């Protein structure tokens, strides 16, 4: 039920699968292709309005409950015929009573040293108000809400659905045919539904364009405050992308910037980037983006050996200079980070800050260059690159762990200085706001 509620905020391409069975939700993750509409974020809001007419959720009902003592599992049979199994140890660990849980913080009070991980049960039963009651062998009594239990069912489909609700890891892959989801800057600041649609599209698609911001400094900071706070780095709370004398970063020149992620010289690179156009060059300065996850998937298919090298070999990155204060950064990163389940987690690549120090064996040097070149070649294919030119008042928000962005060279002149203001945020803060907005928007329905 809660899956279908949240699915209203998924881009249209994902919607069919997420509103279907939970186990099908992840199939959408691997579905590349163009967005059916270029104004996904705006459309999503409309869908939400239409969806608000739906019926309130029926509460889950427990038909029967029993203890399987030999397996130390509790079996719950639901009114719809489904069954769920819960280990005794997990149930005892997650007792929701005031003695075991600090209600005001929703945090566990029960200490691990006080948890009997071999506990048995005396009685399990369904209470008059349809809750599940467990009396443990030490007489402690735990009472569980059926909705709470159902969400925490250990079946693979339920676990996958819960993870999808928490993290929105289903991604929508794209190529040059993408029409970037677009929303209104003021609306995102003032309207919770618009803000939610923006953040969901930012997560799913990886890039959202906001129009209508004032063409003056301070707007990226306002947008960051909508979420929580921005991420301070050595380039300051926010930073000014301009052609600068004695530039301390290649971005602060008028030259071409090849596709890169920002700040791989930090072990924990910023997750999200905002760029606000205050002034654009008359000639050149177009922006380019590619979907690094989609490109990595293509590389894995076309050149598995290159993919293996880029996901296993650590490269050194460096960044030295003075800005907010002086800095001398070193980091070690794989160009393509996978999570422990082998899923794409983060791209770390900036050719400007890739160190001349290369801590790999002699015989690995040439294979590394071959692999990196293969990945860059995939990213440079015209069919994979989205190009756009920002105008004053435009603000682009994108996933810096996934997208690679670049810039075409521009003609720098004193009569009209190209000027962008940028800021970073992290995904933890963005996802936190997304969950809160989802909660408040649903309550309004
Ligand atoms: Zn308790």
Automatic annotation (TrEMBL):
<dbReference type="InterPro" id="IPR050411">
    <property type="entry name" value="AlphaKG_dependent_hydroxylases"/>
</dbReference>
<dbReference type="InterPro" id="IPR003819">
    <property type="entry name" value="TauD/TfdA-like"/>
</dbReference>
<feature type="domain" description="Gamma-butyrobetaine hydroxylase-like N-terminal">
    <location>
        <begin position="68"/>
        <end position="149"/>
    </location>
</feature>
<dbReference type="GO" id="GO:0005506">
    <property type="term" value="F:iron ion binding"/>
</dbReference>
<dbReference type="InterPro" id="IPR042098">
    <property type="entry name" value="TauD-like_sf"/>
</dbReference>
<feature type="domain" description="TauD/TfdA-like">
    <location>
        <begin position="182"/>
        <end position="424"/>
    </location>
</feature>
<keyword id="KW-0223">Dioxygenase</keyword>
<dbReference type="GO" id="GO:0008336">
    <property type="term" value="F:gamma-butyrobetaine dioxygenase activity"/>
</dbReference>
<keyword id="KW-0124">Carnitine biosynthesis</keyword>
<dbReference type="InterPro" id="IPR010376">
    <property type="entry name" value="GBBH-like_N"/>
</dbReference>
<keyword id="KW-0560">Oxidoreductase</keyword>
<comment type="pathway">
    <text>Amine and polyamine biosynthesis; carnitine biosynthesis.</text>
</comment>
<keyword id="KW-0408">Iron</keyword>
<dbReference type="Pfam" id="PF06155">
    <property type="entry name" value="GBBH-like_N"/>
</dbReference>
<comment type="function">
    <text>Catalyzes the formation of L-carnitine from gamma-butyrobetaine.</text>
</comment>
<dbReference type="GO" id="GO:0005739">
    <property type="term" value="C:mitochondrion"/>
</dbReference>
<comment type="similarity">
    <text>Belongs to the gamma-BBH/TMLD family.</text>
</comment>
<dbReference type="GO" id="GO:0045329">
    <property type="term" value="P:carnitine biosynthetic process"/>
</dbReference>
<dbReference type="Pfam" id="PF02668">
    <property type="entry name" value="TauD"/>
</dbReference>
<dbReference type="InterPro" id="IPR038492">
    <property type="entry name" value="GBBH-like_N_sf"/>
</dbReference>
<dbReference type="InterPro" id="IPR012775">
    <property type="entry name" value="GBBH-like"/>
</dbReference>
<protein>
    <recommendedName>
        <fullName>gamma-butyrobetaine dioxygenase</fullName>
        <ecNumber>1.14.11.1</ecNumber>
    </recommendedName>
</protein>
<keyword id="KW-0479">Metal-binding</keyword>
